[in-house]
Amino acid sequence: MSDVDSDEFEEDPGINIGEYEGGRNNNDERHGVGKATFPNGDTYEGRYEYGKRHGNGTYRFRNSAKYVGEYSKGRRHGHGAFWYPDGSRYEGGWIDNQRNGFGIYYYINGDIYEGDWYEHQRHGQGTYTYAASGAKYKGMWVRGRRQGSGEILYSNHRFLGKFLDDLSVGSGKFQFDAGCEQTGEYKLEQLEIPGETEEDELINATTSKWKCSNIQAVQME
């Protein structure tokens, strides 16, 4: 599942436009607690400082998206939760309007990612739970893709190895609850996938294929 990019939901700068009820400072800037309704139908209710959203607040978009959390100088910054129109939700850290730091993303298909973020993307250490299969990936992420060391936990076994651009690569091992271990290697292969019609060009794709080298009994932890 892909993450909704919060940049698609630009907030109104809210500086002396639309309707406003609340505190102001000596320069007539919005300051303190207030509520604003913007010309496009968005609303904000929360704290202001020198005319900009600053502190805790709730911003409701006209398309049903909503952000509840911290602001700094008019930008989502700190800890907050964002509800997206498709039904997905993110709760965690923000820096300069982007998902950054530790956070949890709840996807519309039931998948859950819990871990590090950088500039809206899964980046760093994190755990992704696949709702359909119940499997979990625990490991490193780079720009939204599995990359580096990681493991996938299934109902009765697990795989430990390395990943590159979301694919398993190189040596690894499967450990089964029955008490055996299978070692081997994933090798990348190029595939040509035909289009939906005869006129469509072939689509080049990369996949990884497992080759077993040894099976042995092990003492499971």
Automatic annotation (TrEMBL):
<protein>
    <recommendedName>
        <fullName>Radial spoke head 1 homolog</fullName>
    </recommendedName>
</protein>
<dbReference type="GO" id="GO:0035082">
    <property type="term" value="P:axoneme assembly"/>
</dbReference>
<keyword id="KW-0206">Cytoskeleton</keyword>
<keyword id="KW-0966">Cell projection</keyword>
<dbReference type="InterPro" id="IPR003409">
    <property type="entry name" value="MORN"/>
</dbReference>
<feature type="region of interest" description="Disordered">
    <location>
        <begin position="1"/>
        <end position="39"/>
    </location>
</feature>
<keyword id="KW-0969">Cilium</keyword>
<keyword id="KW-0282">Flagellum</keyword>
<keyword id="KW-0963">Cytoplasm</keyword>
<keyword id="KW-0677">Repeat</keyword>
<comment type="function">
    <text>Functions as part of axonemal radial spoke complexes that play an important part in the motility of sperm and cilia.</text>
</comment>
<feature type="compositionally biased region" description="Acidic residues">
    <location>
        <begin position="1"/>
        <end position="13"/>
    </location>
</feature>
<dbReference type="Pfam" id="PF02493">
    <property type="entry name" value="MORN"/>
</dbReference>
<dbReference type="GO" id="GO:0051321">
    <property type="term" value="P:meiotic cell cycle"/>
</dbReference>
<dbReference type="GO" id="GO:0007286">
    <property type="term" value="P:spermatid development"/>
</dbReference>
<dbReference type="GO" id="GO:0031514">
    <property type="term" value="C:motile cilium"/>
</dbReference>
<keyword id="KW-0469">Meiosis</keyword>
<dbReference type="GO" id="GO:0005634">
    <property type="term" value="C:nucleus"/>
</dbReference>
